[in-house]
Amino acid sequence: MPPSRRSLHAHTSRPPRSPRRLTVQSLVLVCLVGATGTVAMAHDTVTIDQDGAVRTVATPDGATVAEVLESAGVTTSEHDLVQPGPDAVVDDGDTVVVRTSREIEVETDGRVETVRTTAGTVGEYLASSGLAPTARSARRPGRRRSGASPCV
């Protein structure tokens, strides 16, 4: 019984590849490498500064600030400071600044008022409001010592 064609090829060397086949394979390889490079270059690196905590994220080319923040898991409210604005398109190397707003109590002339601010400290809030800070007012918002409010 003569051996089958398949078993003959299993014991012989591989037939030489045709130039056309090599050309097609080379073109496919070049396209794959080119596409991979294009995808890698289509991403921007953006820095997010959220209340002083800085991190760098990769974002798709042409993404808006809102898209960058959403993909990074950063949620904002209408009271927060976001610069540049949420609709701005970011470029490679840009920095997005987020300052989370918080409520603080300010006592002025014996009257306590709750205000919302993105300042890092009560002293920064008072300075931005044109009020003179006192020694007790230069604390971080939201941190109370035994129920005391900053005074002016």
From TrEMBL:
Signal peptide from the UniProt entry: 1-42
Question: What range(s) does the DUF348 domain occupy?
Answer: 46-87, 104-132
User: Which keywords does this chain's UniProt record carry?
Assistant: Signal
Bias (Basic residues) ranges: 137-146
The highest taxon in the source lineage is: Bacteria
One Pfam entry name: DUF348
Q: Which InterPro entries match?
A: DUF348
According to the record, the residues making up region (Disordered) are 130-152
Protein name as annotated? DUF348 domain-containing protein
**Which species is the source of this protein?**
Paraoerskovia sediminicola
